[in-house]
Amino acid sequence: MTAAKILAVIPARGGSKGLPGKNIRPFAGLPLIAHSILCAKMCPGISRVIVSTDSDSIAAKAREYGAEVPFRRPAELAGDTAAMWPVIRHALVESEARFGERYGAVILLDPTSPARLPEDVASALATLNGDERCDGVIGVSEPEFSPYWHCVVEEGGYMRDLFPKAKDFDRRQDVPPVYCINASLYVWRRRLVLESDNWRTGRLRMQIIPQTRAIHIDEIHQFEIAELMVRNGLLVLPWLDGGGVASEASVGERP
What we know:
Number of domains: 2
CATH architecture of the largest domain: Alpha-Beta Complex
Mean pLDDT: 91
Number of helices: 8
Largest sheet: 6 strands, mixed
Helix content: 25-40%
Strand order of the largest sheet: 4-1-5-9-6-10
Structural class: alpha/beta
Radius of gyration: 19 Å
């Protein structure tokens, strides 16, 4: 049986208040968006890589590094308050119409999470393919602290545990593992994207990614810390050569 085609969607709108121009800001020698494009191009399981944007400058950079930009994102999906789920649905519907092909699943690769690796993507796709009942696979990581043990709220002027079960544990080492969604990758079956109003309603599995690579860049300090990690060898991105630039093989056409 022929494997279903996978559409990689990299969303990158032009407006950004936290870090203006972040999607094409140079990161480790490349525009930030290029890292997600090059990662996707190193994944044989991905059939097509597109960028959804409302920006001409982002579109130009995306094409330079091998992504397709088959449409311009509508203004109503590019504002500060626009949700991501309609953007993904729009990208799927438009891509199927323009390319004349049907995709079995969509993978969202946010350009502000540049440290996911091709093997993370391959593992997530294998998980999806291995479970017909699964609607999607979400990138998660184990945080440095457990919400069970550390998270509190204020109530009536006094501290209260966010999770009532916190009192049942004498040591933080005894609390059950907890994971947080880290925005590194999301894979959803076509049926969920087209039929559900909220991706959290699906039957989802987790792709665990080490916390050291669970990087999400929204502010300048996050950007600079991530760059320092690359520079000091704490983050190794396989599409970069030793000098911190893209290799010819990763920029070139994928076989």
